[in-house]
Amino acid sequence: xxxxxxxxxxxxxxxxxxxxxxxxxxxxxxxxxxxxxxxxxxxxxxxxxxxxxxxxxxxxxxxxxxxxxxxxxxxxxxxxxxxxxxxxxxxxxxxxxxxxxxxxxxxxxxxxxxxxxxxxxxxxxxxxxxxxxxxxxxxxxxxxxxxxxxxxxxxxxxxxxx
Length: 162
Prior knowledge:
The chain is mostly helical. 70% of the residues lie in helices and 0% in strands. It contains seven helices and no strands. It has helices at residues 11-16, 28-47, 49-74, 84-94, 101-117, 122-128, 131-156. Helix 6 runs antiparallel to helix 7. The protein is globular, with a radius of gyration of 15 Å.
């Protein structure tokens, strides 16, 4: 992969690819989400949902910045190796799990489903909103959809969410 003039050690590359997990040759979005899952879980478990929400906002805005540099320097419109958007989206879904491991797994699966399937309006955002903001925003909505699905699942399965 040619990242010229960016190198693998450029902060925008490290952050955009979530510490190079997006450089996986197979399923980079899923690999990035898998790499983000334990980090989000630990933030939720040890620091609480408010801290995870704050971390999600930080990832969103810093991801927007790093995507801007990455897209500008590589000339790609929505590079598959950029997975910081998956991090923010997945962490949104984790916010409603109450730290329950089964619901965290469900959040991961629902997020990947909505991120890959891209139902309306996620698909519309993916196709019509360009640039670094466009890279980020469709995954944010996929995370919101996944959070709603987790809440529905929790209600149907009688999970107690703290």
